[in-house]
Amino acid sequence: MWKLLEPRRSEVEFTAIRAQGPGGQHVNKVSSAIQLRFDVGASSLPNALKTRWLQASDNRLTAEGVLIIKAQRYRTQEANRQDAWARLLELLERYVRAPKTRKATRPTRASVRRRLDSKALHGRLKATRQGLD
To answer: Cβ distance 83 to 73 under 8 Å?
Structure first.
């Protein structure tokens, strides 16, 4: 189902940037890392999905609702571009389904009784430790 909700390539902006970390003499000359920018609010995704995504506490989302993914796992731009796209789809899949609503439950009468009995036992044990005045 989520393949139908795939964002359009025109909504995603890829930028080549320099990768971090060690790399030798060649590292300062090439931009092999990819930064993916995806404006969730302005995308063609369904509104319910967009609101779930924008309300999530994700450090990759800016205050304006732009998702930023930095891919620098591989040594080539194309491999990093595919990695960033795969990570975007993985995030999209996480927010496709609405989370289940929690049903309020109550503890059983027996579990309440066991808890109160253990509290009473612990209180009696501590009372025997008190010194005589």
So the answer is: yes
